[in-house]
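Protocol step 4 of 5: obtain the predicted structure for the target chain.
Materials: sequence only (see below). No template structures provided, no constraints applied. The aim of this step is simply to have a reference model before the mutagenesis design in step 5. Sequence pasted as it appears in the construct record:
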Amino acid sequence: MGISKPLLEISYISFLALYFSFYTITPTFSASLQDDFIKCLHIYTNVEFPLNETFFTIEKNASTFEQVLESTAQNLRYLAKSMPKPGIIFKPIHESHVQASIICSKKLGIHLRVRSGGHDYEGLSYVSQIEKPFILIDLSKLRQVNVDIEDNSAWVQAGATTGELYYRIAEKSKVHGFPAGLCSSLGIGGQRGGAYGSMMRKYGLAGDNVLDAKIIDANGKLLDRAAMGEDLFWAIRGGGGASFGIILSWKIKLVPVPKTVTVFTVTKTLEQDVGNKILSKWQVVAAKLVEELFIRVILNVAGNNGNKTVTTSYNALFLGKKGALMKVMKKRFPELGLINTERLCRNELARIRCLHFRLPDRHSY
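Step 4 output (structure tokens):
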């Protein structure tokens, strides 16, 4: 059965409409709308904010605006000129500024995007496809980390990174850690949804180790765990599939770790793993090893144009010393060929250098 010409024309027009809806640049904020937003903020917060340090617009200083916008953007495709840009970038320096931003955006009918560390593949924290001006709330100035070793906990603001959190914990203790992600530049505010790392087999995801949170809801109300209730607290840690508010800070549970841990990376080429037997064995045993041992596999292309191959790098952390690790590997995964060499011995480093051990990124995303 053929397709009628009118139907084809409608489909083509629909396609063009969809295409241009994705590539329409967001209209620039008018000066009056910017002024109205700033005036509204002053009404709903008593804490001053210097405009030259917290407000950034293309009209005021295009180069500075671009620098701030690109500072933590991880997906360069969403920085293209065709992508919608915020009319204002606002960097709150106090929690009340975030509350005021939500209230004022609702009053003025302005869409918000919120960015902690910018580690989202779809650019949702700094791009809006809604065809009207939007504001980017950048939380990078809210980055306090308060570690309480006696309580085995820490309060961490959303603008801090996981690297900063790991460092502050290590300053206070050599036998405490937190099982979050491997990317040290990941924003703490984005830990909702899990955050998996090299200690997850022992302690679970970051979301499993959250004790409390401070969140601002759509009405501008500041809520903690008691005020929000257990359903919302469950949702913001990864149980829900949407945004339920702006996370200001998390109270996290610190977990015990040994003073010394062991790491290793073993890389195999296709020629060294004929038939992918080592890779297949890893798939079988990785989840059945002792929970102190985490092994992940990273695939890469190696070699030049005339002699390319695929490599599999077995990147591991063991919460313990190398002697105990070697016993586990010889018994459960001898195919990898890990040997007790001086190179492995040198990798038995202090906890802060190894707990979040990872290979360098080879690709931008």
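Step 4 remarks: The chain has three domains: 5-138, 145-256, 262-354. The CA atoms of residues 37 and 104 lie 6 Å apart.
Proceed to step 5.
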